[in-house]
Amino acid sequence: MVLALKRFSLKRVTTSLRLGANYVPSAGWFYSWLDFSADAVRRDFADLAGLGLDHVRVFPIWPWIQPNRGLLRPVDDLLTTLDIAAEFGLEVAVDLLQGHLSSFDFLPSWVLTWHRRSVFTDRDVRDGIAAYAAYVSEAAASRANVFAITLGNEVNNLWPANPATPEASRAWAAELVDVVREAAPGVAALYSVYDDAWYAPDHPFHPADAVELGDLTTVHSWVFNGTSRIDGPLGPATLTHADYLVSLAAAAAPGRPVWLQEVGVPRPDVPAGNAAAFVRGTLAAVADNPALWGVTWWSSHDIDRSLLDFPDREYDLGLFTTDHRRKPAAEALAEFAGTTRAAAARPTAVACPVDLLTEPHRRAEVAPGSAFHLEWVRRRQEGPVMIEPAHVSARG
């Protein structure tokens, strides 16, 4: 599958894998949008370009652009950020609904207090979000280096505070993907959820939505979901989790590209001394997966510890410190960026026991630590292995 994107093909090639970073500003975290400095952005992007990366994913904050359902504020700072990225040869993916970032929810007051209503089910709220999505998407698409627009960062983190059913969550996402496509033709419209959509049997956001909505599948691989407890920070299950999740997504929709949109080194699951080895091992395991489109590391920069109340692991996820020093993870990523990787066929496959498209209530059977996952890890140590979709013949 190849989309007609602006200078940014979704087709895997036999040269370098698409490699980027999720942009967390070094000064002031995302609060920096309230006190925008083009010079600070320019220095941050210089850091990333120096690693040999080719793209960044950026996060405007929804309630600061749409503080009232009928008010859309200028996005000049976002457009400046996109232009600065272009100065460094960086393509950009823009996320719309923040939504949820680093354990904090950012929701406008018009869905809170006595107005409280679900962003997924309330018609007035959905219309307001559609107006916001169209507005920001059209503005972002005016820049030639924007290749993708994602509805939001792990929008399923907004549940259960915002009630939703499987039917409602799918309708919500499908509607907004169409809004983005209409507002930003030629740019990939994407939908992003965290891994409960793949592993939690009662979660109202389903694998079918992740692989059927939008122009490719995005997955977020975090080993603090219990994976690191299976065999330690550098064990086979931990180092192959990204490859496993990409393979699971590929099995649910054969032939559809998968973007590893988030992967990072979380403490204490992976101690600081193991960070570089974790990066190397994770990338070595996933790089030749034939379904993989690209990798975007979380995150570009650490969070200043003067900012309070973040979960402790959030502060140190950056490739760079807040004063722009490269960390061991950055050095390992730079080494990888300088190599050539080719997608390779994987003749060995392990049959998935669950049809994730039709049996989401059985997701626990493929979750980390399940019998199937452990068998896949065992086989993966013998060589590259894919996941064979369940009931392939029944689905045609």
TrEMBL record:
It comes from the Bacteria. The lineage of its organism: Bacteria, Bacillati, Actinomycetota, Actinomycetes, Pseudonocardiales. This is Cellulase (Glycosyl hydrolase family 5). It comes from Saccharothrix variisporea. InterPro entries: GH.
